[in-house]
Structure formats: structure tokens, C-alpha cells
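Example record for the data management plan.
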Amino acid sequence: MKNLYLLLLLLTFCAGANAQTQFWSDTFEDTGAPSTGSRTPSVTFSCGGPPATNYFFRTNVGGISLISGSYTGMQGTKFWAGEDIDFGTTCTNASGSANQQVTWSGIDISGKSVLSFKGLFAANSSFASNWEGTIFGASQDYISVEYRIDGGAWTKAVAFYASSTSQSQTLKLETTGDLVGDGADLTYAFTEYGANIAGTGSLLDLRLNVFANGSGTEEIAADNFRLFYGSILPVKLISFSGSNKHAVNSLQWQTATEANSRHFEIERSADGVNFETLGTVAANGSSNSIKSYSFVDTKPLRGVNYYRLKQADMDNNFEFSKVITVKNSTGVSIAVYPNPLSDQLFLNGLDDKNITYRITNTLGQTVQQGTTGLSNRIGITNLHKGVYYIQVEQQAIKFIKQ
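Corresponding structural encoding:
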């Protein structure tokens, strides 16, 4: 359970702005968890097996029997898990409440502001009509994380519900407040989700709140809860992908939340090192729901194109997304031969002569440039041994100097 608020793809950011600082965690491991304060479950039990078939407790993958697979992607070995929670301590169906909690008390937030939460979540997604929706009233299934500051009212931070008012196969992230899941599905693969925490004070309490009473199939799990403070980067990006069709490259991305977001700059590279800006797409400003964006590169480079997003806010803070690649197969492919080579290279596939070229090293530094000449032969005697890229005709071809 160690990835948070709509980060599915689980994206790696290279930050160009102020990142938040983690100050509290519960990894559910045997030592050092939670890092401060206390963890108090409303009940703990383990029935059947071993491995357990009905339970609400801290465990590892070997301690429970899942109906159709196994949890993956947890942080460490231990996590919190539940299934058919109304079995209770007597291990009898419907003998206890199907609504149980785990509460963390006394987390010191003195002097901290701009708080946020992250955690990993997982659930069974294999059976139709598995999770009950709003028409079941007080028996509706859900997973939520709530918080309160200095003993105030509990406030929901992140929650997962059935994706219809009746029943659904999966629990989905709920983003609109209607208690119907509309975001990403929970599966057996732990995925990170998170949310901002409004307010400041002295002590914060956190609560995992769960309702699940289906026999055998309503399996839930959580892991790696964390709290952060400090400046928040403008965008939580949950997906970024691209495809090539009809000689253009189409890019799509989605955000889970946006805070004071100004725009996205779309950047492209031929070698994955040197990027240029292709265009800008306006952002939504501030949002707590999923937003979708797209951009079309109408003149992509031949071969592999590298893309990234520069996400900027109103205060000129920014961060970069992960880099993705899209291959443009149209046009003529240019090849270097021989490869590896020693003192000169030849370019095969050029229709024209006297084409401008540029050679860069693995750091993106230009080490040689010029024109190809009538023979498309380029001398490289001045280059040291190593890996290089020659950029010509909107392509970047890797070669090795021996």
C-alpha cells in the first residue's frame, strides 16, 4: 500500500520546484511503524486457515488466502488487510460490524502547513456485482481515509466506492462527492493515491475506514501511509502516453489534481537529452477531479521521438513529467554503417546530398557538426572512443566510436 492519490502509472517526476517533505509514516512493518503517534484498530481478528479466509489485521501475503490471485506492489512485507469483516472476533458470519477502522492518533503537525497524504491501496476486482453501491444504504461498501485536526470533525481525504449505484466488479476512486466511484479501479496491485489535507493545528488523527461484508470476494488492503508538508507542486499526473497514426504523433495525459496550475509545455527530443518546446496547452487552474488533455505533433521526427511535459503553475514553479517515446515509422529510415566504426561513418538512406548534421555525446553536448558532402561520408577522427548520436534529417542515430 505505498503509492497514492491517482498515481497509476506511477510516474517518476524530475522536479523543478519546491517538493513536499515527508514527516510521518506507517509502513505496517514490525519495527518503526508508525513513525510517531499510535495505531489503534477498532478490532483485529483472523479466521479460517491458516492462511486466514476472514480477517481484519496486519499481515503479509502468506497470512491470507485470496479468492483469485495475490497482492503485489506492497512496500516491505507487511500491510493491513480485510475480508468479510462482519465475521468479527467470534469468527461467525454477521456476528460483528462490517464497518471497522484503524485510527492513528497524536500525530504532531505543530508549525506545519500545506499538508497532504499518500498511501497504497488494493482490492479484489475479479467478480461481477461484487461491491455494493449507494442503493444499499448503510450497507454500502467502501474504503476511505479520513482526518481530523485537534479533535475536530472527521473529513474525508481519499475514498473508493462501487462504480454504480447498484453493484460493480471493482471499487473505483471517488472524486465528485456522490459516493459513486468514477476514477481508477482498485486491483490486487497496490497503487498509490493521495489528497491534500486542509487546515493547520497541533495534533492530527488519521483513520482508515472500511465497510466490506461480502463472503469470500470483498478483499481490501492498504499500506505505506505517509504525511507531507510544505509547498505542493502544481499537478498530480496519473497518465502520459502517445501513439503514431496517419503520420502524426498524438499525445494524451490525465491529471488527478491541479493546484494553481497555469499550463503544460510539450517538449520533444531526438535523443532523449536535448529537448525543444513544441507547444503549450492551457491547464485547468485548480481541480480535484480527473482532467484529460491532448496534443498532436503534426510534424514528428522520423524514427523515435522523445516527449515530456513541463507542468507550470501561476507562481512560475514547474516540474517535468517522465519521458515517453513514440516511434514514427513514416519516411525513409537512415542508418549508420559500419557500426561500431573507427575513423569515418557512412549514412545510408539519404535522398539528398550536402545535408546538415550534428553529432552529440551522451550528455547532449555537440562535439561535431557540418554537412554530409556528396558521398554522405563523415570523418570522425577527432572524436574519442565512446557512444555518440548523429542527428540528421530529423533523426538521431546512435553509433559507437572504437
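Summary line stored alongside the record: Confidence is low (pLDDT under 50) at residues 1-18.
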